[in-house]
Amino acid sequence: MTTPRDQLRWQQNLTAERNAAALYQALAEADPQAPAAKLYTKLADTERRHAAHWEQRLREAGVEPPRLGLNWRTRVLGWLARRWGPALVLPTLAEIERDAGSEYAGDPDQAAQKMARDERGHARMFAALADGTKLEGGELARLEGRHKAAGGNALRAAVLGANDGLLSNFSLIMGVAGAQVAGGTIVVTGLAGLVAGACSMALGEWLSVQSARELYSHQIKIEADELAETPAEEMEELALIYQAKGLSAAEARKLAERLLSDKDHALDTLAREELGINPEDLGGSAWEAAGTSFLLFAVGAIIPLLPFFFTHGTTGVLWSAGASALGLFAIGAAITLMTGRNAFWAGLRQVLIGVAAAAVTYFLGHLVGGHLG
Where are the domains of the chain? Predict the structure, then answer.
């Protein structure tokens, strides 16, 4: 006999499976000519079968399944995939799928246990795709052609970059406001904090990416020398890599021989497979990374400062705190795109942390300002 709790659990499972199917279909439609598109379509079909199972269970219990409603995370990730390609959201999906199937833990239903195994398989697939690991011998050298250093998690970088700017400048502005200084001083301080922080972030990112590019170039040069001097050894190493990815020894050797026989692409293949480096971009442009970091930090840092362009005193502090709280909540909710957690509680947690940090600096500013005065 089913209980209301069982029915609620089945409805939650149905919603999760429907959203997964819609998201995987969006990945397939984002780049239908890519080799991975067929894989995404296959995953979507699997999730639809899972959903059909829970629909049937609900109907057998006398409950009409709810209408399809996509959650906000599915809509946002689907839009990002269609707009900028599946590679942007693959690292996010890999993290979300890491706990895939846990909702079926302990479920005595044999079908649910099979679904749990399917979900764990999906998690491994997305982790492999996000990491640049290829899944089938025939597509090993051409599936997406990306690796984790080059693709990275742009979504995470954007969210965290804006968070750094907002939280640091919010705390700085509250500290100065607590000292009861003039409104113009707060604006100048906030602008200085914005520019200094953004420049620091940009320089740090430039140094990081440029150093990586120089290291990658050096590694590729070493690989080129080894390929010229000991091609047989390089072929054996490549074959071992493909064996580790699931191919048989014969298939791995055949694929390695075929790939390295193409002199124009042999070094490119070795760089991608042995070093995890994309020779086409070497981890991306250092200047592009610096500019992006500057912009993202500035976007976050301007939020607590804007109210002081129009008002001052206690009113300005309250408006600044309110705007910053909204920004922090939005950032906390955006983080759940990567974690899969509850958006409301993640946003609230971010607000509490940010407001606590600003309150400490405001109090310290008040003490120091009063003492100096």
Answer: 4-136, 154-276+286-372
Is there a contact between 163 and 296 (Cβ–Cβ < 8 Å)?
no
> What angle is formed at CA 371 by the lines to CA 365 and CA 373, rounded to 5 degrees?
95
**Looking at this protein, which amino acid is placed at residue 368?**
V
Angle between helices 72-84 and 313-339 (to 10 degrees): 80
Is the per-residue pLDDT at 199 higher than 90?
A: yes
Mean pLDDT of 177-189: 89
**Position with higher pLDDT, 108 vs 85:** 85
Q: CA-CA distance, 265 to 221, in Å (whole number)?
A: 15
Whether pTM > 0.85 for this model: the answer is: no
CA distance 183 to 321: 15
Q: Choose between 182 and 226: higher pLDDT.
A: 182
| More confidently predicted of 12 and 275 | 12
Mean pLDDT, residues 288-297 taken together: 88
Q: Please report the pLDDT score of residue 137 as a whole number.
A: 37
4-136 has which CATH code?
1.20.1260
281, 167 in Cβ contact below 8 A? no
Residue type, 111: A
The upper half-sphere exposure of residue 358, i.e. CA atoms within 13 Å in the direction of its Cβ, equals 25
Q: Is 347 exposed, middle or buried (0-12, 13-18, 19+ CB in 10 A)?
A: buried
Q: Report how far residue 267's alpha carbon sits from residue 52's, in angstroms, rounded to the nearest whole number.
A: 48
Q: How many helices and strands in the chain, by DSSP H and E?
A: 14, 0
CB atoms within 10 A of CB 105: 10
Residue 293 in tokens: 């970091």
CA 148 → CA 27, 257, 276, 348, distances in Å? 18, 25, 8, 31
